[in-house]
Specification:
mainly alpha, Aspartate Aminotransferase, domain 1, two-stranded parallel sheet
């Protein structure tokens, strides 16, 4: 029977061998800061605008259409920028709501979530060295966006995302931004707005 020291040594060797299969780049990845903000929001009962969690049920028509698509074996990959019928429908709704016509073949792309949409839009429109105008948070004596998001959750009761989590380390300008996610009921957004008004008094 192996001694406890031998067992520990074997365990350490196994752990090292498992780590060796992970690239150095992958080893640097940490858990998404969005999930941390969500945990803090739950702990402090904050309105969570940090993560794209809808707080309303999916429309019945959408669920029924998804069921019909499954039954019809519509289960193949869509083209990279989105299925044509879907893009056509989005373009028609955009024109109906905004009054602005867009070309679904050249001016519309369907993305898997807001993060992909954001980076796709930036890569498509901004060259290195160009400036992007963004909203900044008010001066409450905090200069770091991660610290500011924690302040919002704990003191104001609204969870948001620190934008520096989407930018390279060392980008000081990124630490001046925050990001909101809005898939919420009107009542939830109104409550978030009411709480955020407290910043004007800070």
């Amino acid at each position: 029977m192996a001694s406890s020291d031998e067992a520990q040594s074997a365990g350490e060797k196994l752990a090292r061998s498992r780590r060796s299969f992970i690239s150095k780049k992958a080893a640097r990845f940490t858990e998404s800061v969005i999930r941390e903000m969500t945990r803090l929001a739950q702990r402090h009962q904050a309105v969570n605008l940090a993560q794209g969690f809808p707080d309303f049920p999916a429309p019945t028509a959408l669920k029924e259409a998804a069921k019909r698509a499954i039954d019809a074996d519509k289960n193949q990959y869509a083209i990279t920028w989105g299925a044509k019928a879907f893009r056509d429908a989005l373009a028609k709704k955009h024109e109906r709501v905004s009054g602005i016509a867009i070309d679904p073949e050249r001016e519309l792309t369907v993305c898997c979530g807001s993060t992909e949409a954001m980076i796709a839009a930036l890569l498509a429109t901004v060259d290195p060295g160009e400036e992007v105008i963004v909203f900044e948070y008010p001066d409450v004596g905090i200069t770091d966006d991660v610290e500011f998001t924690r302040y919002l959750i704990e003191k104001i009761g609204v969870a948001v995302v620190p934008a520096s989590s989407f930018y390279r380390t060392g980008d000081s300008e990124a630490k001046k931004r925050i990001r909101f996610c809005y898939p919420k009921r009107d009542e939830t957004l109104l409550e978030a707005g009411r709480r955020l008004q407290a910043l004007a008094k800070a």
